[in-house]
Amino acid sequence: MLDPNLIREKPEFVKEGIKNKGSDPNLVDKFLEIDKKRRELIKEIDNLRHTRKELSESIGKKLKQGENVDDIRAEVRKLGDKIDQIEKELEGVEKTYKDILLSIPNLPHPSVPVGKDETENLVLRKEGRIREFSFTPKPHWEIAEELGLIDFKRAVKISGSRFYVLTGLGAKLERALISFMIDYHVEHHGYKEVFPPFLINRDSMIGTGQLPKFAEDMYKIEGEELYLDPTAEVPVTNLHRDEILNEEDLPIKYVAYTACFRKEAGAAGKDTRGIIRVHQFNKVEMVRFTKPEDSYKNLYELLDNAEDILRALELPYQIKMMCTGDLGFTAAMKFDPEVYMGAQEKYVEISSVSNFEDFQARRANIRYKTKDGDLKFVHTLNGSGLAVGRTMAAILENYQNEDGSITIPKVLQKYMGIDKITRK
RNA sequence: GGAGAGAUGGCCGAGUAGGCUGAAGGCACUCGCCUGCUAAGCGAGUGAGGGGCCUAAAACCCCUCCGCGGGUUCGAAUCCCGCUCUCUCCGCCA
């Protein structure tokens, strides 16, 4: 949610930002119109209420003195009817006002390159060494089946397409990755570990911006106002919804593992093989609450934290900076680390690191008290560290050997208890 | 799932025969005073949201808020109805 005052005072500036994001700048005009109406009605109601209050009180006094109050009573009653009528009108206006405000995207940071879609994102840098194979490397889904790590067929039986079953050392590798990532962020980067619920209510979904606009992307529990967690960003950011934090506690840093559930509507035919695009996957997510003036410093730290995992696993990757058109609804700036898939010879998004500034904080009403006693909205940020399934896919493709075995990355060996996965 | 109790400000906690109660008291916090230091003590202050005024901020004025939503009434923290959540007991259960 944007600051309503900003829209009132700098409508052209806001329109420009919205346009660069690929949204309709007309929303600003619609907002200004309803905003004006809203304030007119509020003013009118406040005045009427004020009169009613005074008359009501005078009735009390007159009654005590034994005076007749029938006339005033009738008058106030009429006043009340009028207030009811305007209140009803205001109710409708407020709803529209809120709807528009919630559907306006966050503005891009001025330094974000303007671009229409993902084709105009910038590759900032490439890191790590891409391995040269002396044989033809196999895609991860082939290796996984050959080594008995993933069962695609049976997943279809129990759930459907875009699901997979991890088996044996595949399941263990997934668990090892989750533990390794969380431990690393806790021990080296100072995050506090959180294990939140996976079923999330509507207010929380609105707080982080998934609702009302993106309902079709999420799974909803039938007959209840509960949604399946699409990313730990939602439960973890909402940890502090409607709270006032202390300035000295900022920045607050959480790391959480959750399963993530997504409908992947509109992705038909995309990434149909393997475990790149599925309805359920595991992810370790980092979330930060910061003071406004520190949020960009925190964004770069967050990016570095995500990269640390890639470096520790010795996986080659590149960092993309998203252009305005690919920032998404909520972000002001966003970087996507992409891991290199050795067999498919392409980079695949494995993390996403964003600064939402005060956009989510306004929606979720997350504030902090400054030393001077002022209340201000915090800035919220998050970044995957990392998407677990895609990390496994990258390990399978980049660490495969000619005999069909997989070397376990050094940092995972103590979690796996072995240094290699071989064919039986 | 069944029975009962409750939901008030940052926290604790008063307040129901409806009328200056945004709300006593305490704690915490801030400022000042006092005091070898600390503790104690003394004095003052401290909710949020919205609207108006205004170039802007402060001040000031007004409205709303005692879990949420509705009703009764000239007037509701106080009365009535629905919902949500919390706690206790019972049942069930990983």
TrEMBL record:
Name all Aminoacyl-transfer RNA synthetases class-II family profile domain ranges.
139-409
Cellular component annotations (GO), alphabetically ordered:
cytoplasm
**Keyword annotations of the record:** Aminoacyl-tRNA synthetase, ATP-binding, Coiled coil, Cytoplasm, Ligase, Nucleotide-binding, Protein biosynthesis
Q: Where in the cell is it found?
A: Cytoplasm
- Metabolic or biological pathway, per its Swiss-Prot or TrEMBL entry: Aminoacyl-tRNA biosynthesis; selenocysteinyl-tRNA(Sec) biosynthesis; L-seryl-tRNA(Sec) from L-serine and tRNA(Sec): step 1/1
- Keyword Ligase among UniProt keywords: yes
Q: Where does L-serine bind?
A: T231, A232, E233, R262, E285, N382, S384
Q: Which Pfam families match?
A: Seryl_tRNA_N, tRNA-synt_2b
Name the CDD domains on file. SerRS_core
Residue numbers binding ATP: R262, K263, E264, V278, H279, Q280, F281, E349, I350, S351, S352
Indicate the segments annotated as coiled coil, or none if absent. 38-103
Query: Per UniProt, what is one GO molecular function of this protein?
Result: ATP binding
Its EC number is 6.1.1.11
Q: Which Gene Ontology terms describe the biological processes this protein takes part in?
A: selenocysteine biosynthetic process; seryl-tRNA aminoacylation
Asked if Coiled coil is a keyword of the record, the answer is yes
* Catalyzed reactions per annotation: tRNA(Ser) + L-serine + ATP = L-seryl-tRNA(Ser) + AMP + diphosphate + H(+); tRNA(Sec) + L-serine + ATP = L-seryl-tRNA(Sec) + AMP + diphosphate + H(+)
Q: Where is the major localization of this protein?
A: cytoplasm
Alphabetized InterPro entries for the sequence: aa-tRNA-synt_IIb (IPR002314), aa-tRNA-synth_II (IPR006195), aa-tRNA-synth_II/BPL/LPL (IPR045864), Ser-tRNA-ligase_type_1 (IPR002317), Ser-tRNA-synth_1_N (IPR015866), SerRS_1_N_sf (IPR042103), SerRS_core (IPR033729), tRNA-bd_arm (IPR010978)
What does the similarity note say?
A: Belongs to the class-II aminoacyl-tRNA synthetase family. Type-1 seryl-tRNA synthetase subfamily.
Matching entries from PANTHER family are given as: SERINE--TRNA LIGASE, SERYL-TRNA SYNTHETASE
Subunit structure comment from the entry: Homodimer. The tRNA molecule binds across the dimer.
Please give the function described in this protein's UniProt entry. Answer: Catalyzes the attachment of serine to tRNA(Ser). Is also able to aminoacylate tRNA(Sec) with serine, to form the misacylated tRNA L-seryl-tRNA(Sec), which will be further converted into selenocysteinyl-tRNA(Sec).
Q: What is known of its domains?
A: Consists of two distinct domains, a catalytic core and a N-terminal extension that is involved in tRNA binding.
The name of this protein is Serine--tRNA ligase
Supply the source organism for this entry: Caldisericum exile
Taxonomy of origin reads: Bacteria, Pseudomonadati, Caldisericota/Cryosericota group, Caldisericota, Caldisericia
